[in-house]
């Protein structure tokens, strides 16, 4: 049994072409009549609704029941990945933003940051470091802000008003320094009343230490 999908002539197309999602270009349908949105990787397709050939996609009928549509896939079963509506080939290295570099591999992708996530602690020449976005630059940078207000030494003094809103930031707590008994964990954070980066410590205990045998009293 042979089935065919006939094309109607003349073409009857809408006056306004459809608005396609990001990454899906306008192409002619399978009859070469009307402009439609090209189907992307993994989307259903058929004779009329064609796949995006600019991305190397074809309508794959291998897994579809007879007489039904197929699924857009890479030609020759080539693996790929889709990020933000764009399809990348297997092995391709790409940058979805200036802060990330990604690698498409085996249908998935891994990314590494291009901006250094270093921590700057207060120093005598830079007592109040702060990381800010610089216009025209992708990665944020550390700047040193002079603080005109004098910090009162009295522990009961009220915290001064900072010249800028404090954006809380901190690293994760480190692993406990002791495998048993009481130890301490550290982190770098600005969550204090002066919004100043400092190394903080807290007590921790993973588990109690096992007791000594009775033959060996402490």
TrEMBL record:
<dbReference type="InterPro" id="IPR000867">
    <property type="entry name" value="IGFBP-like"/>
</dbReference>
<dbReference type="InterPro" id="IPR043973">
    <property type="entry name" value="TSP1_CCN"/>
</dbReference>
<dbReference type="InterPro" id="IPR050941">
    <property type="entry name" value="CCN"/>
</dbReference>
<keyword id="KW-0732">Signal</keyword>
<dbReference type="GO" id="GO:0007155">
    <property type="term" value="P:cell adhesion"/>
</dbReference>
<feature type="domain" description="IGFBP N-terminal">
    <location>
        <begin position="1"/>
        <end position="75"/>
    </location>
</feature>
<dbReference type="GO" id="GO:0031012">
    <property type="term" value="C:extracellular matrix"/>
</dbReference>
<feature type="domain" description="VWFC">
    <location>
        <begin position="79"/>
        <end position="145"/>
    </location>
</feature>
<dbReference type="Pfam" id="PF19035">
    <property type="entry name" value="TSP1_CCN"/>
</dbReference>
<comment type="similarity">
    <text>Belongs to the CCN family.</text>
</comment>
<dbReference type="InterPro" id="IPR017891">
    <property type="entry name" value="Insulin_GF-bd_Cys-rich_CS"/>
</dbReference>
<keyword id="KW-1015">Disulfide bond</keyword>
<dbReference type="InterPro" id="IPR001007">
    <property type="entry name" value="VWF_dom"/>
</dbReference>
<dbReference type="GO" id="GO:0005615">
    <property type="term" value="C:extracellular space"/>
</dbReference>
<dbReference type="InterPro" id="IPR036383">
    <property type="entry name" value="TSP1_rpt_sf"/>
</dbReference>
<dbReference type="GO" id="GO:0045597">
    <property type="term" value="P:positive regulation of cell differentiation"/>
</dbReference>
<dbReference type="GO" id="GO:0007165">
    <property type="term" value="P:signal transduction"/>
</dbReference>
<comment type="function">
    <text>May play an important role in modulating bone turnover. Promotes the adhesion of osteoblast cells and inhibits the binding of fibrinogen to integrin receptors. In addition, inhibits osteocalcin production.</text>
</comment>
<dbReference type="Pfam" id="PF00219">
    <property type="entry name" value="IGFBP"/>
</dbReference>
<dbReference type="InterPro" id="IPR000884">
    <property type="entry name" value="TSP1_rpt"/>
</dbReference>
<keyword id="KW-0130">Cell adhesion</keyword>
<protein>
    <recommendedName>
        <fullName>CCN family member 5</fullName>
    </recommendedName>
</protein>
<dbReference type="GO" id="GO:0008201">
    <property type="term" value="F:heparin binding"/>
</dbReference>
<dbReference type="InterPro" id="IPR009030">
    <property type="entry name" value="Growth_fac_rcpt_cys_sf"/>
</dbReference>
<keyword id="KW-0964">Secreted</keyword>
<dbReference type="Pfam" id="PF00093">
    <property type="entry name" value="VWC"/>
</dbReference>
<dbReference type="GO" id="GO:0005634">
    <property type="term" value="C:nucleus"/>
</dbReference>
<dbReference type="GO" id="GO:0005178">
    <property type="term" value="F:integrin binding"/>
</dbReference>
């Amino acid at each position: 049994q042979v089935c065919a999908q006939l094309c109607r002539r003349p073409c009857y197309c809408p006056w306004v072409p459809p608005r396609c999602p990001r990454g899906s270009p306008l192409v002619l349908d399978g009859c070469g009549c009307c402009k439609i949105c090209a189907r992307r990787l993994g989307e259903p397709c058929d004779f009329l609704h064609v796949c995006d050939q600019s991305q190397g996609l074809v309508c794959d009928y291998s897994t579809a029941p007879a007489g039904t549509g197929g699924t857009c896939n890479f030609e020759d079963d080539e693996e790929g990945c889709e990020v933000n509506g764009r399809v990348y080939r297997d092995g391709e290295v790409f940058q979805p933003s200036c802060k990330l570099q990604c690698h498409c591999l085996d249908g998935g992708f891994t990314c590494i940051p291009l901006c250094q996530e270093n921590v700057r602690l207060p120093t005598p020449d830079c007592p109040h470091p702060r990381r800010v976005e610089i216009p025209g630059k992708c990665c944020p940078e550390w700047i040193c802000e002079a603080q005109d207000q004098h910090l009162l030494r009295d522990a009961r003094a009220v915290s001064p008003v900072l010249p800028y809103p404090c954006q809380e930031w901190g690293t994760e707590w480190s692993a406990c320094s002791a495998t048993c008994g009481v130890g301490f964990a550290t982190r770098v954070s600005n969550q204090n009343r002066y919004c100043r980066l400092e190394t903080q410590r807290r007590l921790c205990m993973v588990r109690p230490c096992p007791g000594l045998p009775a033959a060996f009293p402490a």
